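Changelog note: in this version the structure field was regenerated for every chain. One regenerated record is shown below for reference.
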Amino acid sequence: MNKIRHLLFFLLFIFNVIPNFSRNKVIQLELNGKKYDYLYIQIKHLFKEKTKIDGKSIDGCKWIFSVPDSIAQEACFIEFRYKQSNDKIEDLRALGFLGVINGDTLKNYYVNFDNTGDTILLHGNFSKIETHTSLSSFENDSSGIGNWYRDFFIVNPQENKYLMERMQSPFFSFFKNFNDNNINYKDYINEYIQKIRENPDSKYYITNLASTLSFYLSTQDIEELYSFFSPTIKNSYFGREVYRYFLSKNLYLNSKFENSILPSWDTGNLEPIIQDTLKYNLVIFSASWCGPCIKEIPLLKEVYSDLQENLPMTYISIDELKTVKAWGKLMRKENIPWRSLLATNEIDKIKKKYFVEGIPHTLLVYPDKRIEILDIRIKEKKEKLYVLAGKK
């Protein structure tokens, strides 16, 4: 019986993959201890919507997924998911993996293709199910609040390099360490440099770097990390994106501020972002749904109260049509005294023009139109505004 199953699995592989071999990559997943009626992969990308690809199986244990090369090369990571008939829309079910590395049992949820490999072959033995009742507290996923079920399988981590590296360094480039909250920014940079120097061909490291570029305080730090990758990685899709990023951002920060005309949130009148070009200006990109932006309001009010004569401030809301009313409510509730403009009708264009990668995002624009990204939540940056405004 086992020989027949293996033959059927082989034939399934031949008929579904070989015709597209020249342009497809393949994932073969072999599971023991649990069968599935339906499995699919969800592929996360940098700049486009997630890709979903259904798997094919004869016995519910051995699965094949055929991934077009154009999709695979832009994959940040690949996750295995499934559904059951009684699930609510908000419920999510996925596979997870357990592996023993240096005596420690580690978790991971994602795989990816190696730099030159066309196939992922992963064997797993069912271990346990973990259930989380609040999706948002379990994983940073905005698809709703529901139950999350994770079926864990014991695997050999060495079967997939990306999976193994993510097990070993789950927060690479995220500036997180749950075991030590006292690590400073520079120590993280040195740690990441050391890891890259030890493994310059890591697709996992370059993928995470490309996914977290806005976390870095300077493009120089990104350039330094990038310099330690191998030529192959630098020339990969994610390597080119990292290079494009710091090159573009350096050019942007060395350019002059270009004004834009946007509607006022309350009157609808079109106004330039900066009205008084002879003064220093603070331009703050924000949104009604952004918790850190709302938390920043008292600090902005303090700065405005002290420096409004010498430092005009302007809000740029990136709220979409469905939340723009909430922005108006926030402006009224907080009694915001500075100007507020809406980027609602051209959000992508404005974000790209002013390099808005995350919010709150604040630009200090000099009278000569030079640009500086400035986070007033940092004490030294806030004090700099007072010095420039002649208050210290």
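Spot check on this record: The longest strand covers residues 119-132. The two ends are 84 Å apart (CA to CA).
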